[in-house]
Amino acid sequence: MRNVWRDVLDPIIPYETGTPPERLAAQLGLPELVRLSANENPLGPSPRVVAAIAREAARVHLYPDGGAHALREALARRLGVRPEQLVFGNGADELLGLLALAAFERGDEVIVPQPAFEPYAISVMLAGARVVPSPLAGYETDLDDMRRKITDRTKAVILCSPHNPAATIIRRTPLLRFLDALGADPPLVVLDEAYRDFADDPEYPDGVALLGRFPRLIVLRTFSKIAALAGLRVGYAVATAETCDRLNRVRAPYNVNRLGQIAALAALEDPEHWDKSRRLVLEERAFLSEGLRTRGYTFPPSQANFLLVKVPDAPALREKLLRAGILVRDGASVGFPGHLRISLGLRETNEKLLGVL
Ligand SMILES: Cc1ncc(COP(=O)(O)O)c(C=O)c1O
User: Is the domain of 32 the same as that of 68?
Assistant: First the structure.
């Protein structure tokens, strides 16, 4: 028999995004189902974004700008980097795949926190490289463990801050100590900051500001969370021009669609909405955290738009919330059995959730 598929696919389980909420609500006979299982933005997009998409809709017969020039220039200005220091992806997800294609090979090792956002490990495995898991210390990224695991074969270290699903951050001092200790010829360090806009710890570092000092750093960010564009798939990497050049060699020409580019640009031009999203998440995080604490629940203090809450019987509680019209994530599916991962919703949803709990 001809073996037509790559062996590296065998252990990979396709990423399960779940039944769409409308469909699930219909199946369960619920009038409404609020999804708090995907860390989406409860506020929704800026009205200026919606208007920009509507204006662009009649031009979808045209290919997008493969170089995302307008978006690139606006974002480069906002971040204080050169335009060639940005690579856009079909979500930050795609950047992980591009990195794997550009950098990882059989025999390479990539250190990945465990648990963590599943696509990290999948992209490494797809490249035929080896995932070296670094277990969290409780809910925190264990940088000492990661450092101990670095060998000559280490191609990259992946860091996630705020971490999904633990919602904790890596603070400035330990991060700098870790990066400094990697020396003059370090592996690539991916710093995934998808949830950065929801961090309010004064010790939360700005990954982009570290690029000058650590040229092997690749900062991943996204318009999915703070800008509420998850459905349009626009993420980006900020790195040195040399790194971006390598990533561009494996990127499909039109990987970021026309509506996504227009929407991301309009989102950048509406900083008030950006701030409103952040304020809402911070307020609801304080509200839900307080409500959970008074009910005796424990969880690591969150720096993201979700909470990882320890519960006595996660599957049963998830089911109970589902029957009440709120969909949350069973921690078992993200490496934290005995927990629920709950995205922050609007006040009304959060109150209802506390009511059920
Ligand atoms: C930690 C982390 N990184 C990256 C992403 C992917 O973001 P995008 O929607 O831009 O692909 C997510 C999405 O949930 C995430 O949780």
Answer: no
